[in-house]
Amino acid sequence: MKKILYALSILLSVSCNTSRDDIGTGIPTIDIEKELSNFKISKLSDYASFVRYVSLETDDICLVTNTIRNVFVEDNKIFVFDYDPFLKVFDAEDGSYLYNIGGRGQGSGELPYLNTVDINPFTKKIYLSWSSFINEFDFEGNYLRSITKPVLDEDEIESISHIITSLDENLFAAAIQHYGDQQKTMIVIFTDEQEVVARLPGYENPIFPNSTLISYSPHDQGGNFYRSNNTVNFYRGHTDTVFTYNVKESSFLPIVSINYGKHRTNMIFYPDSENPNFIKIRSISGNKEFIFFHFDTYKASPEPFDDEIYRGDSFIQFVDYSIRGIYETTTGSFHFLNQPIPAIQGLENDLDGGVPLVVRNVSTDNKLIDFYQADKFLSNAHKMSSYSDSFAQLVSQINEDDNPIILIAE
Known about the structure:
This protein is mostly beta strands and 410 residues long.
């Protein structure tokens, strides 16, 4: 109990200090306004020694949906998280389809929809979450159990969201959804017996889901977890601090702060009311050495480009003003990325002359992961001025209706 109380005091003192741009000493800070003058092309060879491409097997039993939400590479397997309520698993060497994890439905191990995926290579457990359901599987896809989230006090206007992660075999962390004027808690840590053992206080007003809020997304309100080697990190889309779980302290502690300055959101998420200069986090991935940021903006990109996304049952065209940046943890340096090829974001592929690599995820053993739908991969490949014979052979073997292509750099 003393350890838990001590952890709570750490959480309270640290998180209260992270509610301002002048976050204080001891926590590295990224100065967004300053770094907006620091755009440059970065080469893939600065972060990896070689890159390989895995064409996922294409068959009716393993077709990937038009939208890929994430791809994980662990235990020499590729786990595809798309818009089906289960994971599709492929061999990380040859791309052959292996099996699904979970299923569609309401039976044991099944879900009607899939919100959150947590793959823990250290416990060899996988957690698929939706609403109040958390289903646990092993890496072979065997359903093990269902875990019940704790219910917070009835007089509180906060609830545990579907955004969860495992800290060890029997300890979990979850982001908080809030329905009042001021969010008191960002994260709760709880056991598989539904005991809440610690909380990370919040400090931002909540976001209320509404069809008119164009920029609303779940990670803005609840936040997201991501794995960085053997640690679990946490961020919220519009706030200024990235946290990491400290096992010794049994708490989430800040690792880097973002000074948005005049680019901070005003928390009014209507196109005509939001700060026109706003910048906020869309996603983060990383390891011990580097944190890879993807930011949403209205106009901060020096290289906006036409793009499209698949939503509902059709493609939607838009102008992409997002920007990407890399933070080096050992030196505290940060820079934004210029596009190595016009209208293609990512790291310049100087290893084989192939398509640029956007770091969308990082495996716990430091593999940098990117993924393309086959037609997009071919389209971008044809924009390359020159590339290796091996890359040319790969391109010749891909059809635009194939399953996605996974890029793995290490």
